[in-house]
């Protein structure tokens, strides 16, 4: 029989995430999936899982789970203390958790989102080809609650792992390469200069849908209204308050506010780990 994990402490927001559900934007379904995809892939590889196997993604406060059978886990992404039944355990490396013991993933000391990968992967029922929780549409499993039980798959054969995995640290400053358009002409030349010269900061109102910023407002050259149009991952939308919002994995697939530019997907992993107050700069790609 395969293992099951029981949530002892669900944390502020812990969800199941994998590589996401692609190809359904025309149906109004965003991609979802792990915000820090490189961290998810590395944690899985350290266990011999498929790189896109489903994991638990925690937010700021971590979580605690109890397996009903022996399991091997890796906790990576945001730096945080890890304990097994109260005893310190390695972060960023495979850890054996005996049946009935409590794996506690503590509050992030640097970064925002930690990833808990389990040998065999989390095997909740997939929806549209993905096990990811989508906070916008409600597809996939509900966010973890105390007492919730999630199943684990059969572990793959062990693989050789490096002595030290190359885990990146969270950004002290978030630098986002920006490709202008498609609605950059809706903003004044002064606003476009501000966008690429000013320093913004990560807003506490950020979430899996979008990273909101605080800073100077971008002045629009056009005061008209846009009909709803398609939105892509990394789109930088500017709502009426003039502060840019970078769309992340649970973003809506359409929107009516102008998009001043698009951030390339590889840069979004750092955005997933940028804590509130982190400086944000946009550079022309």
UniProtKB/TrEMBL annotation:
Residues 26-284 form the Carboxyltransferase domain. InterPro entries: CT_A_B, Cyclophilin-like_dom_sf, PxpC. Pfam families: CT_A_B. GO terms for molecular function: ATP binding; hydrolase activity. Keywords: ATP-binding, Hydrolase, Nucleotide-binding. The keyword Nucleotide-binding applies. This is Biotin-dependent carboxyltransferase family protein. Signal peptide: none annotated. It comes from the Bacteria.
